[in-house]
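Purpose: get a first structural picture of the assembly so the mutagenesis plan has something to point at.
Setup: four entries, given in the order below. No constraints added.
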Amino acid sequence: MINLYKDEDKALVAVDCIIFGFDNENLKILLIKRDFEPERGKWSLMGGFLKKSETLDEAADRVLRHLTGLNNVYLEQLRGYSKVDRDPVERTLSLAYYALINISDHTEINEEYSAKWFNIDEAPSLIFDHQEMVRYAISRLRYRAQTKPIGFELLPQKFTMKQLQSLYEAILGEKLDKRNFINKINGLDILLKLDEKDMNSSRKGSYLYTFDELKYRAKVSDGFTFKL
Amino acid sequence: MINLYKDEDKALVAVDCIIFGFDNENLKILLIKRDFEPERGKWSLMGGFLKKSETLDEAADRVLRHLTGLNNVYLEQLRGYSKVDRDPVERTLSLAYYALINISDHTEINEEYSAKWFNIDEAPSLIFDHQEMVRYAISRLRYRAQTKPIGFELLPQKFTMKQLQSLYEAILGEKLDKRNFINKINGLDILLKLDEKDMNSSRKGSYLYTFDELKYRAKVSDGFTFKL
DNA sequence: CTTTGAAAGTGTAAAATTCACATTTATTAA
DNA sequence: TTAATAAATGTGAATTTTACACTTTCAAAG
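Result (structure tokens, whole complex):
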């Protein structure tokens, strides 16, 4: 078969990852300090180029694994960015992804990169259109977290109600009422209350919960939809 | 500056458009019958390749203008599709867009393509991953139509409440209660009720409305958010 | 061993929103 | 004048959301 596409322009394609974490207080993003041109020394998202033999999801996965060593991370594609001169070196398309990782379990970041966690509202300015990507990522995360039980990706497997509430407050950027929050979460009936308590936060101790994924899936296939 | 990216793989990048229309009864998509290889004779979305000098939005716009002659059409990027062999000819990335056009005003489709409107639930099967793109487009449209007043893009400038309700029913795929719908729409206070009536649908005639964009914008900047 | 401090845990009533639902009005064609 | 057809209109019940404050637990301090 002759190649009908041979006269078309090709482009470099990159993926850039907005990596979210949560430290029990603030929503954070992981940024790297570029030690290569262009824009050496500036802060940016972690990214990489798409290879011929992989999908975008695989590329994002690879980039993430390379930086954090983590596999099976929650990743969602956001959208493509395509300003003609967004990268000064060469015409490069970028597809933004966001990732949710559990900081507490995983502190080992590849030292090859000078990576650092920043509160989302204290992050430095970023190269290219990365700022715009972050804004979009936050808005998507806000939406998604109210629609799908993805918040748990940011928490340790066992967590307290307080942690869960603080997480949602950080994601939504607003304070929530404790009793209403707990009532709503319990109403969803997708958490498992453990016998175990976390004794760090108070003398009384607070119960630990886990997300009951199996129960959630069963409920979903019965027509249930998560809605915070 | 030496080109640091020169060893990276490049890819063809396409845009594919899900073009929605509404005929006062059903939500429709405009498909073309391919008269070129690969998959000649099969139905597909209208698409085209991204050129070096344009953004994705511009490419989608160009593709759309070429097919329909329309400018300033509502277009929203959906996401990238990147299965390695999604196009059998060559590795091609595609960015899906959806467009909302007002069928009644514009019937002139470029005859160069054999294009045809299909009800969304009666569309033929499509080439490549276009089917998947359509599904995603519908779900995004459903969400967006409840969040932003984009429905009006699919209607003539002057429309009846009945038309508006039928449109939302078609988008959401469910019947709505007439009185509740009207009460909700009127509650938003973003329509202008005209003195004019549409006398085609009944002896009594039904009032025509227009979307009052200025009022809507003013309300938005006062903190209002459209929510159906 | 009693007191104190600090966070955890718990329920209800008011307000707002959503939902279900049926009759009257206007017009023209018969 | 009557009949037929779609347009227009409001209310009460049910549900959901919101606001709100006191009691419990336990270890550390005295």
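Residues 160-162, 178-179, 182-183, 201-207 of chain A lie near DNA strand C (CB under 10 Å from a C1').
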